[in-house]
TrEMBL record:
Keyword flag Transferase: yes
NCBIfam families, per the entry: pcaJ_scoB_fam
UniProt-listed Enzyme Commission number(s): 2.8.3.5
Transmembrane segments: none
Protein's recorded name: Probable succinyl-CoA:3-ketoacid-coenzyme A transferase subunit B
Gene field: scoB_1
Molecular functions (GO terms): succinyl-CoA:3-oxo-acid CoA-transferase activity
Keyword Membrane in annotation: no
Organism ancestry: Bacteria, Pseudomonadati, Pseudomonadota, Gammaproteobacteria, Alteromonadales
Length: 218
């Protein structure tokens, strides 16, 4: 059974470590804020100028002036700080973010990512993704394995305009957790109830499948 958006966020949260500074991209990545393990100290950074982002607010805690880079209302944890987007991008470009979680339209076997533009469609713009992929070493992309027409989003070569080249090492989809190395996708885990055969069928780029592929723990 394919993972839901919330389950994807739960699995990404298992990659967090105590003391990490983390940037969450727009879309599924923002949900990770709701699944930070109890007792773990993680500071979430947003490119619009917030360090110390908390969970999404409840109706009685909404502050319309407190938003993330995707213009969603958020909360701030104790010790949070606010600053200009220029300072925020200096943190990103300076390599001070320990983990970046991004969404994507396409990822290929070289670790390239296309996440900001579909020709002919209205999009909000690239946001901070190009800075994040250039300034971060540890990036996880989380997205659907295939588009709504069943076309694979894990390709031999990205077809859409690139956000970054050769910068992605791990991809979590609704079907699988995959590592990118040596010009291929390497299957690490499969979603509960999802067969290896389905993952192979829906992966357009070269996929290396080990003898045993464990089910994902959520």
């Amino acid at each position: 059974m394919a993972l839901s958006r919330e389950q994807l966020a739960q699995r990404v949260a298992k990659e967090l470590k105590d003391g990490y500074y983390v940037n969450l991209g727009i879309g599924i990545p923002t949900l990770v804020a709701n699944y930070i393990p109890e007792g773990m100290q993680v500071m979430l950074q947003s490119e619009n100028g917030l360090l110390g982002m908390g969970e999404f607010p409840t109706e009685d805690t909404i502050d319309p002036d407190l938003i993330n880079a995707g213009k969603q209302t958020v909360t701030a944890v104790k010790g949070a700080s606010f600053f200009s987007s220029a300072e925020s991008f200096a943190m990103i470009r300076g390599g001070h973010v320990d983990l970046t979680v991004l969404g994507a339209f396409e990822v290929d076997v070289e670790g390239s990512i296309a996440s900001w533009m579909i020709p002919g469609k209205l999009v909000k713009g690239m946001g901070g993704a190009m800075d994040l992929v250039a300034g971060a070493d540890n990036i996880i992309v989380t997205m659907m394995h295939a588009d709504k027409h069943g076309n694979s989003k894990l390709l031999s070569k990205c077809e859409l305009p690139l956000t970054g080249y050769g910068c992605i090492k791990r991809v979590l989809t609704d079907l699988a957790f995959i590592e990118i190395k040596d010009g291929a996708f390497h299957l690490l885990e499969r979603a509960p109830g999802v067969s290896v055969e389905e993952i192979v069928a829906k992966t357009a780029g070269k996929l290396i499948v080990p003898e045993h592929v464990p089910e994902m723990a959520l």
